[in-house]
Structures are given as C-alpha cells and as structure tokens.
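Exam prep: given the inputs below (a chain plus guanosine-5'-triphosphate), describe the expected output before reading on.
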Amino acid sequence: MAQTEPPKAARLWRDAALRARKLRGGPGEPEPEPDEGPPGGPPPPAARRPPLGELEALNLSGRGLEELPEEVGAALSGLRVLSLRRNRLCRLPAAALRHLGRLAELDLSHNRLRGLGDGRALAGLRGLRKLSLSHNELGAESPGLPPRLAELARLEELDLSFNRLRRLPEGLGCLRHLRALDIDHNLLPCFPAPLLELTALEELDCSGNRHLGALPEGIAALRRLKILWLSGTGLAALPEGLCQLGALESLMLDGNQLRTLPAGFSGLQRLKMLNLSSNLLGEFPAAILALPGLEELYLSRNQLAVLPPRLCQLRQLRTLWLDNNRIRYLPDSIVLLHSLEELVLQGNQIAILPEGFGQLSRVTLWKIKDNPLIQPPYEVCMKGIPYIAAYQQELAHSQPALKPRLKLVLMGLKDAGKTLLRRCLMEEDGAQPRGPCPAPSLPPDSSQGIEVMDWTADAERGLTFIVYELAGDPTYDVIQSFFLSPGALYVLVVNLSAYVPQHFYPSVGYFLHWLGSKVPHAVVCMVGTHADLCAERELEEKCLDIHHQIAQQEKRDAEGLQSLVQQVDEALGQDFDLRCSSPHTAFYGVSDKNLRRKKAQFQYLLNHRPQILSPVLPFSCWDHCQVRRLRDKLLSVAEHRDIFPNLHRVLPKSWQVLEELHFQPQAQQLWLSWWDSARLGLQAGLTEDRLQSALSYLHESGKLLYFEEHLTLREYVFHNLPRLIDILNVFCQRDATVLLQKLLSDTHVDELRATQLHHYVEGFLLHGLLPAHVIRLLLKPHIQSREDLQLILELLEKMGLCYCVNKPKSKPLNGAAAWYKFPCYVKNEVPHAEAWINGANLSGQSFVAEQLQIEYSFPFIFPPGLFARYSVQINSHVVQRSDGKYQIYAYRGKVPVVVSYRPARGALQPDTLSIASHASLPNIWTAWQAITPLVEELNVLLQEWPGLYYTVHVLCSKCLKRGSPNPHSFPGELLSQPRPEGLTEIICPKNGSERVNVALVYPPTPTVISPCSK
Ligand SMILES: Nc1nc2c(ncn2[C@@H]2O[C@H](COP(=O)(O)OP(=O)(O)OP(=O)(O)O)[C@@H](O)[C@H]2O)c(=O)[nH]1
Ligand SMILES: [Mg+2]
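Solution:
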C-alpha cells in the first residue's frame, strides 16, 4: 500500500494539518484505492482484480514510471481516481490521459514535470475536481502555465505548490468552483491578480513565495476564505482589505517583516488561529484583544516588551507562544486564561511569575527556559505548573526569605594552586588587612575527588559561597561532571609559573570545552596563580597569551558552528525533494523540520558560549592585596543581577528553614528516611503534603538528593552531600596501597584474608569488579548498616557509576552475593569477540550478514566519563555482556550488539562512539531492534550535555561489508524520519555501483528522540 504512511508519521501529518485547519474533508475526496502489495513487490494474483475497464481508482505512486503508455489509458477508461505521485514523469502522459475523460482526481505530484505543454491533455479532463501538480519543476521552461488550465471548470482543489512558477495563467479566475488553491513555495514576484476572481476560494496558501512583498486591497473579494497562509512572503504591511475577510479562521503570517497590524484587524471576528511569529512587532497589537474566538496565538520571535493586562479577554485561548521576545513581566490577569494548554515563554526577561499562576492547571506544554527567574526560582519553574502552584501556596503561608548562596566551583590542572587559593580566600580576614597570609605555611597535599565547604564571604550581607573544589587529577572527571551545574560561578585556575603556551589546551582550553559542553553560558573567572614566582614581564606575557588563546579557541569554535549554520541554511533554501534526489548532497534526505531543529541547536550553542569575565587575574597566595582583590571580584560578580539573577531568588521561609534543619550539625547521618525528613518539615511548618515540593526544590537546586520518581530511593533523602562526596571519592581512588589500607584497617585480618583482599583490589583496578561485602569494607566508616550499603549501591547505580552484574531480576538484591562492576575501572580487558568475527552467527555458521552501525562523533570534546556511564546505562537492555576498556560486546535477546569508543586521532578524526549490530537483510529489523534502544539511551544521556556539539551518522553498510576504512555516512537525522515512500535503494556515493537497501539506512520505525535534539 504505497499510500500508507507509518502510523506515527501519519498521525504527525494529521496533527499538523489539524493545527493549520487544513483538513479538507467532505465530498469529492475519495482517496485512491490502494492496490495490493508493497511497492516493488510481486503483483497480486490477477483473479482478485476487477476487470480493468471497471477499475475506478488506481494508485501507481512510487513506481519509477517515466511514462504512462497510451494502452494503459485506453484499458482504464473508467478510472475516476489516478495517482502517479512520486514517479519520474518529465512530460504529461498526454496520450494516456486522452482516454481518461472520467477522471475526477489526478495526482501528479513529486514528478519531474517542467511544463504542461499547451495544456490540451489536461483540458480534456473536463470532470476533474482535484488536481495535484506539487513538487515538480513547473515554470522551469516557461514562467507560467498554459491558459487552457482554466478550462477545468469543475476543479475544486488545485495544488501547484513547490514548483518554480513566476506567474499564473490569466484565465485562472474562471475556476468558479475552486475551493482550495496551493501556490506556496513558488517564485511569484507579486500577488497574482487572477486570484482575486476566485470568489469560491476557502483555502489559499501563498507561503514561501519570498518576494510577494505586498497584498492588494482587492483581497477583500475573497470573502469565503477560511484559511490563508502567507508565511515567509516578505510582507512589510497588510492592507485594510484583508480585514474584510470575515470568514477567515486561520491566518498564517509568520516569517514576514510586519511591525503593526491594520486598524481594522479586529474585523476578523471568526479568527481562531493567528500566527505572527518571526515578525518585527515591537508592541502587542491591540486589535488582537478584540478577537474573542481566538484559540491559538503565536507571537514567537518578535520584539515585544509588554503584554497588555487585557490579554485575559481572550478567554478561548488554548495556545499562546511568546518565546524569544523581550518580555519582562506577565500581566497578572494571564492567570485568568483558564483554557490555556500551551504556554511558551522561553527566551524572555521574566523574573517573577504573577500570583495565582498555578491556576493555569491545564497547561501541559510549558516552556520557560532562558528567563532570569527569581520568584519562583528557576528550579521550581522548570518542574512545571503544579510545582509553581505549590511554591506560591507555600509563599502565601509563610513570609518570603532571601538567602544569597552561590555555588563556586574551583577547577584546573593538578598543582594549579586551587587548594591553596581556596584556603587563602577563606582564611582571609578583612579585619586584619596587614596580617601575614596564613595558608602557605601549610602546603596542601594533592587533593582527591571533590571537596565541598561553606564560605561566608561577606558576613554583613550574608552572602555565602558553597565551594566545590575539583581535584585536578583527571581520574576524577567522571564524578566531577555531576557537579558542573548551571547557575554556579566557575574559577579556572592556572599555574602561571608552570604555564607554557604549548600547554594551553590541557591547562585551559580543555577545561573550557568540558565546562561549556555541560553548562552552556557558564560564568568563568580566570585566575593565574604562582604570580610570585614569575617576573613581571613573564607574568604579563603569559596572561596575555592565555587571553589570546582563549579568544582564538572561542573564535574557532564559533566560526565552526557558524559555518554549520550556514550549511544548514543553504540546505533549507533548497527543496526537500532536491535534497532527496542524490545521496551526494549535504543533509541527504533530512526533513526540513529536522534541519530547522539542527539549526536551532547550533544557534543555541552559538548564543550560549562560556562567559569569560576577565582577562587572567594574576594571583599569589603570598600577596594579601591580591587575595582581597580576588575575593572582592568574586563577590561583585556573584552579586551582579544580570549574571546571577538566581542569587536573589525568593523562597518561602518554610523551605529555607527546612533546608537549614537538614543541614544542622546534629543531622550527621548519611541519609534520612522520608519520615525523618517529614519530622523536620513539621518543625519548619510544612505539613507532609507540602514537603514533596520543598524537597524537590532542594534537589533541583543541588542542596540535597531526593529522587522523587525512583521506586526505592524516593523513600530517602540524601541530605549530607559532603559525606556522599566522600563516598564517591573512594571510588576515584586508583592507588592499590591506599585501597588496601582501607580494607585492612581496624579489622583483625589473618594472612589468608589479607591475600584475598589483595586479589579483590587487583581485580577491581583491572576489571572494575567488586563484591558488595568488600565495597562495604571500603566504605567504612561512611557505611554502618546493610541498609546503608544497599542504598548507596542503588544511588551509585542511579548515578551511573556501577551496575550489579548478577542481580536476580525481580528479586530483592542480596547484599552478600552481589558483584558490582565499575566501568570506569575497566583497564585492559578485551571483550571476547567470537560472535563478531566475519559475520558468523551464534551457531558459528557463516552467513551473508549486513552491518548496521550508528556513529556519534565529538569534534570538540568527548564528555569525560561518558563511555563508562553509558555502559552502566545500557545494562538493563543487554545480556551476556563482555566489557573492554573501550568496547562492550553483548546481546539484545539473541542479536549481538557492540558498543565501541574510539579516542580521537588528531584533529581530523575526532572521538567517536558507535553502536553496531548485524543480521541478514531479511532479518535486518532484528538488528534495528537491537540497537535502537541503545541509541535512544545514548540520546537521553547526551541531554545531560546541553552545550555539547556532536554529530550522528548511519554508516553505509556496503562500505562496512567491504571493510572500507572510511565508510560513507548518511545523516543521523534519518533515524528519526519515516522511510521515504517508494524508495527501495540508495546509491552509496563512495562507490556508485553499490546500492544500499533502504532498510539498512532507515530503521523500521523512527526513533523517538532525534539524535540531534536537546
Ligand atoms: N609560590 C607559590 N606557590 C603556590 C601558589 N599557589 C599554590 N602554590 C603551591 O603549589 C602547589 C600546588 O598547590 P595546590 O593548591 O595543592 O594545587 P591544587 O590545584 O589544589 O592541586 P590538586 O589538588 O592536585 O588538583 C603547592 O605546593 C602550593 O603550596 C602561589 O601562588 N605561589
Ligand atoms: Mg588541591
């Protein structure tokens, strides 16, 4: 059934059509009857077909037809519906059409028609009511269409979209029955005058004729018009005549240059949908408020600063998109829009949401990112309307509290001077400016993992920093990535005396890439330590060099992204069909939607570069003045409202008290049960039903861990972050002696036991494997009870640090027997590869297997620890796994899969992570079924890295089979697209003679998350 699209795609299309009110129902819409069998498949038995002459509907779409012989027409003279969609017709099959005088519907879309000749062949189809000529090359030979088209007097629907027409035939106005006309995406230089005579018209689509420029006053004549599309037509103003289209229900005006609407616009009293996105509106057009029936209003990407209080008059409004404007306040009355289901406010300047916002309980599509929110705080807003409601109720119960507390993260290479810098800052006492700097007398040891402490930097103003110091040893990167979060102030520390320009990347550039990919728009302060050991000139030169090289790296990255935006733009400028026509083209087969998404992603990356606040601040721990200067600098940055609006967030007093109670000195336990926490809640004045939202806020703002959606963990609150971090730090330890010391300390161990423990440690450092009881020993004194141990292991699993290799499914975990694998420790293991050798299947028989391989590449940086975390994440999907340092072989059911990481080899071959499987061609769906969940799991994980740039490709399975070292790659976006209708094979551009079956490039059902969406 060539007409049938996969159900999901079909649904998407229907939704899109519904949204645009573009459903053309009613009589005159007999869909072409499907003919049996898949395209290209064997013809069904002739016995089941009616005699040809009686056939009423025939679907010949996607058959690669170059012509339709006259005999076919002659034999099918009874046809009423004929689809010749997606063929290769260059000319109208005039001879065949001559016999088809009864045709009511003819679909010639997606062919290669360059003209319609003199039009005689079509004009003969007197009964034609529906004609589609979209996606051809009409206009390529002569600027217009033959006048005889106007002889199709019974025509009701005409689709001429996506051609190259520069004008329409004069007589077109004679088509008195025409209800729907699509002339979008042509090259019309102005609004075609003949259209004004089409008074029966109910739907008109002129979008994408980029130079239409203006509409005539006479458009008022189209009084029956219900749907009018004028997207991207270069309109700078609208005529008053438009306001007389009293029947209009949907009006698309997005992507123009409108600054205002005409005075009479409120005359469009039937309007239900209005799209004014991507225009130049500086003020909210008041006329819109007088359209009481409006259900959908799109005003994204304008320059609106103020919304009128009377917005609430639009009582029927279900959809309101206001993203990417300059809105500072929402009118209080917005909470009266009780029908709202979609509210999109992303990318504005909103700091405070009006009281009673929680009343908008019907809103299911809610976007508020990229606003300087303080009340409710960002963390609450992001969780959705119910959380906002809870916050606002809480605020009404107890007075607001303001407590400035900012996360300060110190990062930089080993021996950069972070620990000493932190000590100097924290011990610096403003009251004794001339005292000796105390810190250097206690040279610190190399730090391990992460250290967290509170620093009251300004007691007067009550400003506290929560300082996270990340040790420079790269083995801690996996764990440290968890603590790079938005809304913190980052201090990147460089040892200036050791610095040489050749080491810019490992000492500075790398950290900026790492941070930037985890925290877009991160605020970074550069500090150069050991200034006392450098001569003045040297100091100046090194600071300047770092400054220059940061600028260069930024420039390179931004230029790279900009050129990608440009490439996507160019591709978008082309027709989708053109993009599908040859696998050589960039973004082969990628849909416009996916391209737009990709562009938005690049633009997001470009707009959210790290914010590097200063040139390098030279610093010596010996110099009191410099210490104080640094402290003042950090304070002034922290208090800058534009940089850290969050610092001024308003919290209900009860939430703040709850936070304090959780951190009081007597709360030293590792975790609290929900009930313990609820008791503290009561002390803070929070009844149990109000505790959840407070805990959720504290979790989101990084104060404690509370996993409200986890089956077991939600019964607990991990309030003691420093102790948790101590535990994490244990698993960063790679020194056998230190580990052994921990195991052997304070227990009475005999020699035999000691040897045994020794083996465990060796095994751990090589294979990352440990039994639970040894983990318990290692974690002494942090862990006292078995419950402690089980909880911590669940937590580590949830964080993606380890997984249980022998946990019995559906049975509770048996602490004593369980073994845990920590993938970041896997050192030199090479997984056994029997199943993969030369495409041999499980039973060892050789067969002609086709390879599927999805490759992710990471041109700037490969997220530290991603491979280890990913290998934990996929554990629930695979069986019989065998892990190597860079590779995992496993099975999904009976199908083998392999996940492999390949580190970068020079700038031209970046780090890659690939997921592969194989199967014979008829069974290739099994291979897709094996890898798709793994791909989706990776996509989910990558969403934790919103500033990361990476690409996804589907490697050509023919190239892979040939063992080509440089296989061709198809765009990864194809994974989230349905297989194109009618296409069976794709030519591999690397080897023109090879055809790749479409089933080896597109999965049977598109993946849910586009690999490139964030
Ligand atoms: N002369 C001088 N020595 C410094 C300065 N800052 C740090 N040091 C010394 O440099 C060495 C490393 O400093 P740390 O503060 O331990 O370095 P770190 O960045 O914490 O290193 P890791 O913990 O390993 O990541 C220590 O011996 C410090 O005493 C400084 O400004 N001047
Ligand atoms: Mg240190």
